[in-house]
Write a structure and sequence with these properties.
Elements (H helix, E strand, L loop, with lengths): L17 H7 L9 E8 L5 E3 L7 E4 L3 H11 L3 E7 L16 H12 L4 E6 L12 E3 L2 E3 H18 L3 E4 L6 H11 L8 E6 L6 H6 L20 H13 L3 E5 L5 H10 L4 E5 L1 H12 L5 H15 L3 E4 L2 H23 L1
Parallel strand pairs: 1-3, 1-4, 1-12, 4-5, 5-8, 9-10, 10-11, 11-12
Antiparallel strand pairs: 2-3, 6-7
Helix pairs in contact: 2-3, 3-4, 4-5
Bound molecules: ligand PBG.
The site of ligand PBG has 11 residues, from α6.
């Protein structure tokens, strides 16, 4: 049969060479969109690798200059700071302590690199003795009394020099409480990146080791969302935007890419997706066993998150990705030049 008589499309024409593929590529991953999480702990000279997250370490503040320098050399311009405090109590007082671990870390980062965008995680779970995200009243997390603590924490982060505050607690009304408190304290220009659609996920397991924040009893299902609910996620996002969020986070990323895509269609605000600890750990474990090609899998995962509609990705893979993107660009250019000769 003569193929010219058949009617079909030849998609392969535009896939023939790397040059063509590059021209028609719809989604581009770049270090510009990456946010790298940092776990800052008390003490000195601490660089303690998290067993379930190879390549990720808890760092003491004195380790920050080297870390921040490495990130900026790699072209990563934003970090998300978590703290592991020296003491924990019922009221999470380490969270809003002016001399707390996050507050000191923010100052240290800004001293070495004022242009590094410092986002701080605002939550109580790392600071409470019971590991819950708020004030307990008869073993229940009391919503409204918790708002006050979150607002104080956010203001203390802004006062230390944080560029963005990111509440991850999932209490109702925290965005408006934080916005009001920031404005009253004179931080009218500090944006809120709200974890608007945060699901009660088993993918946070390794993070709770890293941040030492596992709840002593019970779980987080009374405030984090049911993984089954997409419409509710859109209502959460809408409410946070009405309360004054400047940008939002969907978390985790991979099992929730439909939420990212729907949020992208419905809301014209910047959307971050959090490629969480369990997602990272699975890739690392498989790669260590030689079961997958780590580099290709990670680039595919992050490209997929962007393709779904995220503008920013919070990821533990950030440093590796930035390195690979540089090497890749170099290798590609050399290959194209060689082919043309
Ligand atoms: C709460 C917080 C969590 C994560 C980010 N902020 C844990 C939780 O809700 O239990 C999880 C991040 C990850 O798994 O990578 N402070």
């Amino acid at each position: 049969m003569n193929p010219a008589e058949l009617s079909f499309r030849r998609f392969r024409r535009l896939r023939r060479t790397e040059g063509l593929r590059r021209l028609v590529r719809e989604t581009r991953l770049s270090a510009d969109v990456l946010i790298y999480p940092l776990f800052i702990t008390h003490g000195t000279a601490v660089r303690r690798e998290v067993p379930s997250m190879p390549g990720v370490s808890q760092l003491s503040i004195d380790q920050l200059p080297a870390e921040i320098e490495e990130l900026s050399i790699l072209g990563i311009g934003a970090v998300l700071v978590f703290g592991i405090p020296e003491y924990k109590d019922e009221l999470a007082s380490g969270a809003y302590d002016e001399r707390g671990v996050v507050q000191e870390a923010v100052r240290a980062i800004k001293r070495v690199d004022p242009s590094m965008v410092v986002v701080t995680d605002v939550c109580n779970c790392e600071y409470t003795s019971h590991g819950h995200c708020g004030v307990l009243v008869e073993d229940q997390i009391a919503n409204d009394p918790t708002l006050e603590l979150l607002a104080r924490t956010a203001v203390s982060h802004a006062a230390a020099g944080a560029d963005v505050v990111a509440p991850s607690d999932m209490m109702d009304g925290r965005v408006v409480a934080i916005r009001r408190a920031l404005d009253e304290a004179g931080f009218t220009e500090t944006p809120i990146l709200s974890y608007a659609a945060k699901f009660a996920s088993a993918f946070y397991g390794p993070f709770r080791d890293a941040a030492e924040s596992a709840p002593a009893f019970g779980d987080r299902r009374s405030h984090q969302m049911d993984p089954a609910n997409r419409r509710e996620a859109l209502r959460e996002i809408e409410a946070d935007l009405e309360e004054g969020a400047d940008a939002i986070i969907v978390k985790p990323a991979l099992a929730y890419l439909d939420v990212v895509a729907w949020a992208r269609q419905r809301f014209d605000v910047p959307i971050a997706a959090y490629n969480v600890s369990g997602e990272y750990a699975m890739v690392k474990a498989a790669a260590r066993n030689g079961w997958i090609d780590e580099r290709r899998v990670v680039l595919e995962v992050l490209t997929g998150i962007l393709r779904a509609g995220a503008n920013m990705v919070i990821t533990y893979h950030a440093k590796d990705v930035a390195r690979w993107l540089r090497e890749g660009a170099g290798a590609e250019a050399t290959a194209v030049l060689a082919a043309e000769r």
